[in-house]
Write a structure and sequence with these properties.
Distance between the termini: 57 Å
Radius of gyration: 28 Å
Number of helices: 19
Shape: globular
Number of strands: 11
Strand order of the largest sheet: 2-1-3-4
Order of helices and strands: HHEHHEEEHEEHHHHHHHEEHHHHHEEEHH
């Protein structure tokens, strides 16, 4: 499933919608599937309709149903009724400095410059034609202002990990809602894919225009995704700290991350909305500059989904372009060539722009297509005849540079005024409270934060470290257990009942088995400083929370080497899924326990004394 829908203003559910949110065979909605966490406090019972009209099954259906039911909405249905939380003062990011490296050296994402000018005067607000945001406590729209800005006025200085945490805290402190039982996020599904689709369904429902009636959300979700539970909460609640994602047997931060990553992957797979630009993906800007309600709704949902990934995970929504996010937040005036920023994120794209970057700005501008600069200008659709070839002033040079950077990095010569980016921005630049939106929480430090949020090396290292720590935690828990695990993969399947009962209370049975396969004996090794070692190979990223849980043989086993007292662990998708299972009591047999125990049984009796 994806968020992609058909174009135009829908009047009914259409079967030609590009994505499928529906199981058409569901004719009624059983009460047993109604979410236990749904918001009911703000629903006016008098607005409930007894009409037998069909529920929305697609994005077109959601919007069409909102159109048909628009006159039934009451004031109690409107968002923005939540209490505004206490606001914590905003602090500037800490800056660390060091001397410049050589201009010839390739900068890294953690490079520091000598100073920072945090006094950026760019004022970027909602464009007048996008209208008011329908989220809580929304203010009106105003006109964008682009004062002159030089290329180096806001230098790139990567933020630190603690700065990302500080920014997340600022966002949380300004959320216009008090989270309680009725506004706690709860999503439950058998796989990450289904949970991701439910999250997207919720976002589409929020951004539909006209708004779809809230009291029909659960029934519509059940028709679209039978058996999936998703509480209906305000958009602001999705950015709060009270979130519960339950995927198959997993609950907590790991399933939530998997769901958000899956949702981003589904989103960026839509070729009508996303195109590769270097190592990232930018928006596919529609050839028309008119607004289309269905397309706008989808792009708003996309924008908010990216915001959720940034705030909740503290990471960039890869492969969404950080240059796109910067353009949304900083506006057109700051779309200039920042060598350090671009090099740290996509060196290949800087190489494309380098002929212009190296031009001194005063010498005659070559338009020869055989030269690198001339070819760049032509490829970017720059009208050569309109340029001041004998020399440009700063305003003209910056204007051409914005066009070049926009074309190369984003795919459009003027993206900040395009309806597609305006819609995407409405979702990303969420109004936290009156006068405070996401843009203002990053003001003057957008590049610093985006550089750190999109530091792939740091992100991957942290993910791998968390997997390894979880493995160690569950391994120790397994070794503290008694006898054979009371698990369907082991008891009666691998271990006969009489053997199971024989070792039922043996507190050292599992330790002896592990020693046998890792040392060749169930006796403790000689010497005072012996160790059992586990090395890790990280094969892939997390994909599906329901994969491999029906068959232990599908999960790569540990490769033991008794000579070196070592076990080689392949951290693939299957094992990552096992690590997600929630521990329910000290005697609860986990899938991890069964996966560990089976191979150890093969060494039972080897050099046993």
């Amino acid at each position: 499933m994806s968020l992609a829908g058909s174009r135009g203003d829908p009047v009914q559910c259409r079967e030609d919608c590009a994505h499928d949110l529906v199981s058409q065979s569901m004719a009624s909605v059983p009460d047993s599937h109604v979410s236990r966490r749904a918001v009911q406090d703000n629903i006016d019972d008098n607005s409930m309709s007894s009409s037998d009209e069909s529920l929305p099954d697609t994005i077109d259906g959601i919007m069409a149903y909102g159109q048909r039911n628009h006159h039934r909405r009451t004031a109690a249905d409107q968002r923005g009724s939540a209490v505004i939380a206490e606001v914590t003062p905003q602090h500037q990011l800490r800056r660390r400095t060091r001397s410049h490296e050589s201009e010839q050296s390739r900068p890294s994402a953690r490079r520091r410059l000598e100073h920072v000018n945090a006094g950026m005067d760019v004022i970027e607000t909602e464009a007048s034609d996008i209208g008011q945001h329908r989220g809580p406590a929304c203010t009106g729209a105003s006109t964008e202002v682009y004062p002159p800005i030089s290329r180096d006025s806001v230098p790139f200085i990567p933020a630190e990990a603690e700065d990302i945490g500080e920014w997340q805290n600022i966002v949380h402190a300004n959320l216009p809602i008090n989270i309680d039982e009725s506004t706690e996020v709860f999503i439950q599904a058998s796989t990450t894919s289904l949970a991701a689709r439910a999250l997207q369904f919720l976002l589409l429902w929020h951004f539909a225009s006209p708004p779809a009636p809230y009291h029909q959300f659960e029934a519509a979700l059940e028709r679209a995704l039978p058996g999936v539970v998703c509480s209906f909460v305000p958009l602001a609640a999705l950015l709060s700290s009270k979130r519960v994602f339950e995927v198959n047997v997993g609950v907590g931060a790991a399933p939530e991350k998997a769901v958000l990553r899956d949702a981003i992957a589904q989103m960026t797979s839509e070729v009508r909305f996303w195109v590769e630009k270097g190592v990232y993906k930018s928006l596919v800007f529609h050839s028309s500059t008119d607004h289309f309600r269905t397309r706008d709704c989808i792009l708003k949902a996309y924008g908010f989904l990216c915001l959720m990934h940034l705030v909740n995970l503290g990471q960039g929504p890869e492969p969404v372009s950080p240059f796109l996010l910067q353009a949304v937040i900083d506006g057109r005036s700051n779309i200039l060539i920042d060598r350090e920023f671009i090099l740290s994120l996509d060196p290949g794209q800087f190489a494309v722009l380098q002929p212009w970057y190296d031009w001194n700005g005063t010498s005659p501008l070559t338009t020869d297509p055989k030269t690198d600069l001339g070819a760049l200008l032509i490829e970017a659709d720059i009208v050569i005849e309109a340029l001041s070839l004998e020399g440009m002033d700063e305003a003209e040079r910056n204007g051409v540079e914005r066009t070049l950077v926009s074309r190369v990095l984003l795919g459009h010569i003027d993206p900040t005024h395009h309806p597609d980016l305006l819609a995407f921005r409405e979702g990303l630049n969420f109004q936290l409270r009156p006068g405070q939106d996401i843009r203002k929480t990053m003001e003057g430090r957008t590049k610093a934060l985006l550089g750190a949020l999109n530091d792939k090396e740091d992100q991957q290292t942290e993910v791998e470290r968390q997997h390894e720590l979880r493995f160690a935690e569950l391994l120790i828990r397994y070794l503290h257990g008694k006898g054979h695990p009371d698990h369907e993969w082991i008891r009666g399947e691998v271990v006969p009942e009489d053997m199971y009962m024989k070792e039922h209370e043996n507190v050292v049975h599992r330790v002896r088995l592990l020693l046998q396969v890792m040392t060749g004996s169930d006796l403790l090794p000689l010497g005072e400083h012996w160790k059992l070692k586990f090395s890790f190979t990280h094969a892939s990223s997390y994909q599906d929370g329901g994969a491999h849980l029906n068959n232990a043989e599908e999960i790569t086993p540990i490769l033991y080497s008794a000579c070196f007292m070592q076990g080689k662990v392949t951290m693939d998708v299957g094992l990552q899924n096992l690590l997600l299972q929630e521990v329910d009591g000290p005697d609860h047999a986990l899938y991890f326990d069964a996966w560990m125990h089976g191979p150890l049984m093969a060494g039972d009796g080897f050099n046993k004394i």
